[in-house]
Amino acid sequence: MFLNAILLALREIRRNLMRSFLTVLGIVIGVAAVITMVTLGNGATRMVAEQISSLGSNLLILRPGQRLGPGRDSAGAPNFRAADVEALLTQVPSLKAVAPVVSSTVTLVAGAENWSSSVTGSTNAYFVAGNWKLAAGRQFSDEEMRAGKAVCVIGNTVKQKLFAGQSPLGNAVRVKNFSCEIVGILASKGQGAMGMDQDDVVLMPLVTAQRRLTGKTQDVSTLMLSLKDGASSPRVMEQIRQLMRERRKLAENDDDNFNLMDTKQIAEALSGTIGTMTTLLGAVAAVSLLVGGIGIMNIMLVSVTERTREIGIRLAIGALENEVLLQFLIEAVALSAFGGLVGIILALLACLGLSALMGMPFLFNPGINLLAFGFSAAIGVIFGYVPARRAAGLDPIEALRHE
Amino acid sequence: MSSGNGAAPPLIQFRRITKTYGQGQAEFQALRGVDLEIAEGDFVAVMGPSGSGKSTVMNILGCLDSPSSGDYLFQGVPVQDLSRNQRALLRRHYLGFVFQGFNLLARTSAQENVELPLLYRGESPEARHRASREALARVGLNGWEHHTPAELSGGQQQRVAIARAIVTNPLVLLADEPTGNLDSQRSHEIMELLVRLNREQGITIAMVTHEPDMAAYASRIVHFVDGRVASDERTAEPAPCS
Lengths: 403, 242
Ligand SMILES: Nc1ncnc2c1ncn2[C@@H]1O[C@H](COP(=O)(O)OP(=O)(O)OP(=O)(O)O)[C@@H](O)[C@H]1O
Ligand SMILES: [Mg+2]
Known about the structure:
Pfam family, one (chain A): FtsX
Largest sheet of chain B: 6 strands, mixed
Helix content of chain B: 25-40%
Family (chain A): Belongs to the ABC-4 integral membrane protein family.
Strand content of chain A: 15-25%
Shape of chain A: elongated
Radius of gyration of chain A: 33 Å
Order of helices and strands of chain B: EEEHEEHEHHHEHEHEE
Keywords (chain A): Cell membrane, Membrane, Transmembrane, Transmembrane helix
CATH architecture of one domain in chain B: 3-Layer(aba) Sandwich
Membrane topology (chain A): Multi-pass membrane protein
Number of strands of chain A: 10
Distance between the termini of chain B: 8 Å
Helix content of chain A: 55-70%
Shape of chain B: globular
CATH class of one domain in chain B: Alpha Beta
Number of helices of chain B: 7
Strand order of the largest sheet of chain A: 2-3-8-5-7-6
Strand content of chain B: 25-35%
Distance between the termini of chain A: 30 Å
Largest interface: A-B, 27 and 29 residues
Bound molecules: adenosine-5'-triphosphate, magnesium ion
Order of helices and strands of chain A: HHEHEEHEHEHEEEHEHEHHHHH
Main location (chain A): membrane
Oligomer: heterodimer
Largest sheet of chain A: 6 strands, mixed, barrel
Structural class of chain B: alpha/beta
């Protein structure tokens, strides 16, 4: 009986190829859309979350000028000096570290290899502020920082590019026009936002960078401030603002000529936005799943007259109600399951491709796969099976007369 | 099956069968108390004007429809006491039905249509194949096995329907105007086939027809008028029971 039902179900699927194809298509589209959207959204959220955690403790960035963004520049506003760093550290107790930062993109040469990278000049506070750990070697000594010695700490990517296989510690790298001794190697952080490589960096003492690369000697245009754990960032930000206004001798009704931003807030806002987008896309996808479902329902209802007559014929020539129902159930399950599987495969291929393209992590989410598959299968089975159940409960002659 | 033993109940017995369609104002009594007995091996032609209830009687005989009142005994067993599944098994194993409107499965080849009753009987693919080709040959349709109903003429579809009803060698063959769409030569060929089935295999036949020519092949002619049996005449002895 079961084999017969499978045979009959497969025959009906083959005979009504268009109907079967449309049913499968509805399910494929719905399932693929939902899974793709949600998986990509999850990947984007994860990416931002990783970025936030790689920032480490709460990090503030202080720059001269009124506000970041187009049309505003820092031309008129003075840069920061070493005294500002001291003042911040002593007068704002919630700050863990204050790192003055200058940076420049230069070509590095070691042996026959060369590589273009970003060089950052700062103090040891930068390791704290940037949440950098050392994989090998050491930080800068006080002497090196004060005298502006030619020493540097390199990121993992720079190490790979210039010193494939061997340990660079103690070796020299040529930075622009001077030779610099490598004293430390940073632990890898991996890929950052939008596929940016965070390990493609070189650190050197602030004074060294100022003298030999950026040309300025005394001041810096960026301070990175790291908060102590548990400090309330709005309150600390207000303290810093007041202190800087005082130190820059701004009058009561002058605008700030510096700009303080909280990177974590930005990142959190960004991840919030992405979360909202994911929800939105998920909703759009859910609608497409629903539309797919309605499409299936429509196809099934359109064919219900013909199918009711078919059921009448089968009953009239001696089929049992259960045999007819089993056939219809197998038909519905086969189509829905096939559609669901194709949808999942399509979605996974699309997700793999798209997340590679966008430099996002690919997160397989079994929950959403199961949910989408279950929902579409339920639609297929309900709309394929329920009308059949009604028809199979009729007297054969009533089913045959159905219009 | 029962032998010539006089104590055995007739194969089919209708006792004051009525059938009412619709309700209230639209109520219509298609059968108004039909008493009818059909013995095994009989060949009954059912005649009567259009709307007199012939198809209604056939549907009830075929266990496709239930009477509104009265008793239908099949081999002495009241059909209304059987479950849905038992009635389905009765249709499967004892009855063959030719519908006035053919009722073939769409987009399904003639051969697969004819095989269907055998499939529900659980016959092997080889047996189904052989029997269905043979049945199609008997109604003059060899060479048409792979055509679907849409590719067949009305008369050819009717013959596929007949092949489907006889392929199981049923105990009773119920045919509602089996020659309604056929030319007279085909009609006579089909009637000769039915007579052979009746005489040689002892298949009991009830057949609706409007044509006296066709009714002449039967052993007994029952006339319906307004949902009642108006006359019932025997024209030949029933076939000896097998
Ligand atoms: N499903 C139905 N609902 C309501 N009335 C019906 C139904 N089926 C049949 N009837 C009525 O019952 C009566 C008998 O119908 P039936 O089909 O038995 O006639 P018939 O003798 O087979 O006619 P014909 O020779 O035209 O096939 C008709 O008057 C018809 O209108
Ligand atoms: Mg009729």
